[in-house]
Amino acid sequence: REDVGGVRVVMTAERKGPMIIAIGSGKGGVGKSTLTANLAIALARSGVKVGLVDADIYGPSQPVIFGSQGQKPDARDNKPVPIESKYGVPHLSMGHLVAPGKALAWRGPMAGSALGQLIEAHWSKDMEVLLVDLPPGTGDVQLTMIQKFKPAGAILVSTPQDLALIDAARAGQLFDTAGVEVIGLVENMSGYACPHCGEVSDPFGAGGVEAAAGKLDLPFLGRIPLDIAIRQGSDAGDPPAAGDSSMAEPFLRIAERLQA
Ligand code: ADP
């Protein structure tokens, strides 16, 4: 373990393969997938060999964010080969393995084994970090993930809203009881700058996640503003962390804090 700018980064020297970092949230729609994709891109920009697994089996959104919808992974030795992206982040999603728009109605064990296939795919040997975009909440897939693949750490995302915070605390407990270190909390949709008049308002409150991190004695990793450009970039397969606009900065800063 090393202390880096107040953030403890767990190094897993004893584990073969990349260090797994799970990104979780208590509820859906708080920006977990957005953070995972942009954090991966920000890490890749600073030279980290990083891959991404979209474990949000029931609602995969990474193919849209990376603009890789409709691409089918090759198979080698019966394992899927991750899809390369122009952002330097090979990734794999359930969305690449099933027909687009098909709803999955699997029970826990099947969802868990699907997740296993994604994590144990043909990742290149020099892969250092694998970010895993978990489904929201504390269900079977999260449990399988934690028990079977022993992430080195978890990052929790929440909006500043009370309800989202309570749910995030519950998700934190799930990792805690399984002995997985919560690396820190990120506040998303934090402050909204009006594109017309520039006035900053707080549609979901402000500072709630930092305060919660303090109460839970967890590191606070940073905040990402609510910005229409983030939503537009994500929908267009043009994630903001890849560009040079100010929207890349919050993600680059969080990536910096995570690095040894
Ligand atoms: P989750 O993975 O938690 O369900 P998503 O990352 O899919 O959430 O985000 C939900 C929606 O909110 C998406 O349309 C996404 O583009 C949008 N979004 C996420 N974060 C922001 C933000 N900071 N500013 C604007 N839109 C955002």
From TrEMBL:
Coiled coil: none annotated. The keyword Nucleotide-binding applies. One of its GO terms (biological process) is iron-sulfur cluster assembly. Keywords: ATP-binding, Hydrolase, Iron, Iron-sulfur, Metal-binding, Nucleotide-binding. GO terms for molecular function: 4 iron, 4 sulfur cluster binding; ATP binding; ATP hydrolysis activity; ATP-dependent FeS chaperone activity; metal ion binding. The keyword Iron-sulfur applies. ATP binds at residues 26-33. Belongs to the Mrp/NBP35 ATP-binding proteins family. Homodimer. Binds and transfers iron-sulfur (Fe-S) clusters to target apoproteins. Can hydrolyze ATP. This is Iron-sulfur cluster carrier protein. It comes from Qipengyuania vulgaris. The lineage of its organism: Bacteria, Pseudomonadati, Pseudomonadota, Alphaproteobacteria, Sphingomonadales. The chain holds residues 56 to 315 of 321 of the full protein.
